[in-house]
Q: What sequence folds into this?
């Protein structure tokens, strides 16, 4: 169950990142975040009302609030780092986010066996290589490294917090709804600041209504990924769930290969292969 739901998390997050990346080519990234998360919040709100999720309100919701605060900050730092580049450095460094939930699992007493420990090492190495790291080239600006590390810390923190936000299905819907509401509030505030500083909230042609279904998919896929990850950590070790869930960059790279005909570099193909081997080791362990 843990492996199944964690791999579903990777698939959903990978597709959401791919869709968000495509949309950000035509619409400002902050607007993509705000609109997609707003759609997700509305859908989750309907589900919470229909399932009576409000009855699950309690102290655990503060974990969802914290996750909602950390998520947009991580995304903003990540987008800024990608803008500064090179992406071949930023993408692999962002996978360090897995260190946070794995570290939490180890602190809580989880001790993966030899096979799973090997699987974790192989999978993390594979994910980093799948990002296509630059081994040569111009030096990377220190600010780019700092922004990427902050983003990785933020993503990892969301991993750890959302796992603690609920222990029931209806409670999970409520936690995800609260997280998304906070996401929208933080994202909207950041967008407002950006506009005041001269940034654009919309493309020259106005709001791209034709892209609304795609924006909805990005938001809902992100929500579903958070949900499947929460289920994964409730059914098994955090150390395993976090590593398998962190395979999403491989999904994004493969989606770009399939839909945009982007060619994988040799190091990326090798990384995808190692990630698969690591997955098999984790499942076997």
A:
């Amino acid at each position: 169950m843990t492996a199944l739901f964690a791999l579903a998390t990777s698939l959903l997050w990978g597709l959401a990142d791919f869709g968000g990346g495509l949309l950000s080519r035509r619409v400002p990234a902050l607007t993509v975040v705000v609109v997609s998360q707003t759609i997700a919040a509305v859908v989750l709100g309907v589900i919470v009302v229909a399932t009576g999720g409000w009855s699950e309100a309690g102290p655990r919701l503060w974990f969802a609030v914290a996750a909602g605060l950390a998520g947009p900050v991580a995304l903003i730092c990540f987008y800024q780092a990608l803008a500064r580049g090179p992406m071949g450095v930023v993408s692999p460094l962002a996978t360090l986010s897995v260190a946070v939930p794995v570290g939490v699992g180890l602190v809580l007493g989880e001790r993966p066996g030899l096979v799973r420990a090997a699987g974790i090492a192989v999978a993390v190495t594979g994910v980093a290589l799948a990002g296509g790291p630059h081994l040569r080239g111009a030096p990377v600006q220190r600010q780019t490294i700092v922004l990427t590390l902050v983003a990785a810390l933020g993503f990892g923190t969301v991993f750890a917090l959302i796992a603690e936000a609920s222990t029931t299905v209806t409670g999970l819907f409520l936690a995800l709804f609260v997280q998304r509401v906070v996401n929208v509030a933080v994202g909207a505030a950041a967008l407002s600041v950006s506009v005041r500083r001269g940034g654009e909230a919309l493309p020259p042609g106005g709001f791209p209504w034709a892209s609304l279904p795609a924006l909805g998919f990005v938001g809902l896929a992100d929500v579903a990924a958070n949900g499947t990850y929460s289920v994964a950590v409730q059914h098994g070790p955090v150390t395993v769930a976090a590593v398998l869930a962190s395979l999403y960059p491989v999904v994004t790279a493969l989606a770009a290969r399939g839909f945009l005909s982007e060619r994988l570099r040799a190091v990326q193909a090798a990384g995808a292969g190692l990630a698969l081997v690591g997955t098999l080791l984790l499942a076997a362990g």
Remarks:
- Residues 126 and 271 are 4 Å apart (CA to CA).
- The chain is about 75% helix and 0% strand.
